[in-house]
What does this fold into?
Amino acid sequence: MKLLLGKPVAQKIYQRIKPKPMKIAIIVLTNDLSTISYLNSKIRKFFEFQINAEIIKLEENISENQLLDKINEINERPDIRGIFIEMPLPKQINPLNVFSKISPNKDIEGLNPLNFGKILYGNEFIVPSTAKAVIELLDYYEISVEGKNVVVIGRSIIVGKPLSLLLLNRNATITICHSKTQNLKEITKNAEILICAIGKANYINRSFVKENSIVIDIGTNYVDGKLVGDVHFEDVKDLVSAITPVPGGIGPITTAITIENCLKLCSLD
Ligand SMILES: NC(=O)c1ccc[n+]([C@@H]2O[C@H](COP(=O)([O-])OP(=O)(O)OC[C@H]3O[C@@H](n4cnc5c(N)ncnc54)[C@H](OP(=O)(O)O)[C@@H]3O)[C@@H](O)[C@H]2O)c1
It folds into this structure.
């Protein structure tokens, strides 16, 4: 079994990007401590690339109109070149309204419908970072998806959907599964590459996995203070030909892509 580590992939991305002083705004609506501690480590990494993050902490119960006004205000600030909203959004906020409001030229996460829609045409200038991180990992380890039977579990707007489009752009044969999928195991058992973005700790055990397949675990779940993936690593590791660990898999690559997205936006003039 080959371990698909994220660190060397992230290093390769850092080598190709040129730091440039810039300022971004990070809107935080959650009080969740694990999100905030992850955010702090991300901000330190941004700083290494001369990206200065202004944290804009808003109340979790903010109205959608108040949030939209805030985004408008930041859109108009010339000193801020990128806007990032820490996910998940509170329930009262409609993601489409919020991401439509972020100027496409300041849209670090590629979630404005204009940037997102461009993926359908094969234009991947700014792409949601976790989805792009999976592609970077596959490229680094020279895993071709062309013509392969790839199953993605999860259809969120930030991970599953954009990732499925990126894979389709690379000629994979994609099956997208979700909570309403029937006979999930029958589908995943046929996957040459299985990608999990579910958000359920250790959910995928060997009964879901095809022998000698490649498994990519995007999930980040805390169990008793410990970070674990969606895949039960110990249970599947002897069955698969390659697998990403959690932590140390997709996470570090996602941060590198976020930084690269910031610098791409900064280059737009
Ligand atoms: N490593 C990173 O950098 C990174 C970045 C982003 C997210 N993540 C992690 O990735 C995971 C997914 O994130 P997300 O934002 O996409 O989560 P999300 O918005 O909660 O979406 C979860 C998806 O999984 C599906 N699902 C839930 N239970 C299922 C089940 N039993 N069987 C099949 N499908 C099921 C849901 O289906 P429905 O659509 O039917 O509800 C949904 O499409 C989370 O653990 C998150 O923390 C990691």
Notes: The longest strand covers residues 22-28. Residues 16-107 form a domain with the Rossmann fold fold (CATH 3.40.50.10860).
